[in-house]
Amino acid sequence: MRKKFFFFTLFFLFITPLKADLKEKIIINFEKINNLSFNFEQTINEKTEFGNCVIKYPKKIYCTYNNFNKKIMVSDGNSLVIINQKSNQYYRYPIDKTALSLILDKNYLINQMKILEGRVVDKKYYNFTLIDKEIKINIFFNNQTLNLTGWQTEDIYQNLTITFISSVKINQVIEKNKFKIPEPK
Questions:
Q1: Could you list the pLDDT tens digit for every one of the 185 residues in the chain?
Q2: CA-CA distance, 52 to 72, in Å (whole number)?
Q3: Rounded-to-integer distance, Cα 37 and Cα 148, Å
Q4: Which of the ends of the chain has fewer CB neighbours closer than 10 A, N or C?
């Protein structure tokens, strides 16, 4: 009985603070970020696309897809536009109707991370699960670099989207008009 108590006490005293310490380090690191540039691999319902993005907080993103359609996705913080350059299709959405509205809101993410219990995944990632209205988002951070490594969302239709990011650059100089919404052609 004493051994069980001893091991439980050791676990509680040493392992739990390490987990809490990692969470705090991730939050402190994330608070310092104004923008991110990265490559991505995105899988939606078993279809994978690649490209690169720039995120500028709050709620701005510019992505180019390296695919047949040469898709571009851009948000100015209010609208989200997706352009298929190959077929000249143009889609415009209010960003607040998308999961990206939450993912691109650094203050929202930080506030959620502070109150949520995170978990270690595969000894490499730290995960927070956010549920807002009908949107479920898993945000992943690298345990070593403390950087964002991706997210997983499930929309109201239960479509699963997994975005893995790599080659992350933080607080880079960004073109002034990078997030300007292009007009349809």
A1: 544 444 444 344 344 444 569 999 999 999 999 999 999 999 988 899 999 999 999 999 999 999 888 899 999 999 999 999 888 899 999 999 889 999 999 999 999 999 999 999 999 999 999 998 878 899 999 999 999 999 999 866 777 899 999 999 999 999 989 999 988 87
A2: 10
A3: 11
A4: N
Element (DSSP H or E) covering residue 174: none
Structure tokens at 61: 């993103």
Q: Which domains does the chain have, with CATH numbers?
A: 18-170 (2.50.20.10)
d(CA 43, CA 125): 19
CA atoms within 13 A on the CB side of 58: 11
